UniProtKB/TrEMBL annotation:
InterPro entries xrefs: CMP_dCMP_dom, Cytidine_deaminase-like
PROSITE patterns in the cross-refs: CYT_DCMP_DEAMINASES_2
GO MF entries: catalytic activity
One Pfam family of this chain: dCMP_cyt_deam_1
UniProt cross-references to Gene3D superfamilies, sorted A to Z: Cytidine Deaminase, domain 2
Domain CMP/dCMP-type deaminase: 2-145
Record-given protein name: CMP/dCMP-type deaminase domain-containing protein
Length: 145
C-alpha cells in the first residue's frame, strides 16, 4: 500500500495541472514500477474522447447536448500518451485521483463508461482510484474472454 500511496500522490500532483473549471482529475499509468504516462482532464477536445463518449449513452449523468463534452478526460489523456508503446498493457496499472473543492481530501474518481471502454480496449486490467472515503481497486476482466 505504501507504493500505491506514492502513486496516488503523483496522480494528485497531476490533477493540479487540470484547466477544467469544475473538477480536477489526474491519472498516471504505471508499468513494472515506473510511471510511463500521465494525464489530467482538460477543456481541450479530442476525437478519441468523442468516439468513446458513445459508450455513455446509458449513463444517467451524460447529456449529449452539454457543451462541456467531449472535453478530454484524465484517463483517456493518459492512455493517449502510452497507446503506441510496445508493452504488455495487461501489466499496466492506472491510478486516478480527484481533487475536491470542499474540506475532503479526495472524491470519487471511478472511470466513467467511456473511459472504462478505452481502458478495456487497450487491455489494462488493474485500476486504482479515489472514493469519497479513501481508495478502491478494481481488477477488470479480459475483454476477449
Amino acid at each position: 500500500m505504501k507504493t500505491d500511496i506514492r502513486y496516488f500522490c503523483k496522480a494528485k500532483h497531476v490533477a493540479h495541472a487540470s484547466d477544467y473549471p469544475k473538477i480536477h482529475i489526474g491519472c498516471i499509468a504505471v508499468y513494472q514500477g515506473s510511471i510511463i504516462g500521465i494525464g489530467c482532464n482538460t477543456n481541450k477536445t479530442h476525437p478519441i474522447q468523442k468516439y468513446y463518449n458513445s459508450y455513455r449513452a446509458d449513463d444517467d449523468n451524460f447529456d449529449s447536448a452539454d457543451d462541456l463534452l467531449p472535453k478530454l478526460h484524465a484517463e483517456i489523456n493518459c492512455i493517449n500518451s502510452i497507446r503506441y508503446m510496445n508493452i504488455n498493457f495487461a501489466k499496466v496499472k492506472l491510478y486516478i485521483y480527484r481533487l475536491r473543492n470542499d474540506d475532503k481530501p479526495y472524491g470519487i474518481s471511478r472511470p466513467c463508461p467511456s473511459c472504462m471502454a478505452a481502458i478495456k480496449d487497450l487491455g489494462i486490467r488493474e485500476i486504482h482510484y479515489t472514493t469519497n472515503d479513501g481508495f478502491a481497486t478494481e481488477f477488470l476482466e479480459n475483454k476477449y474472454i
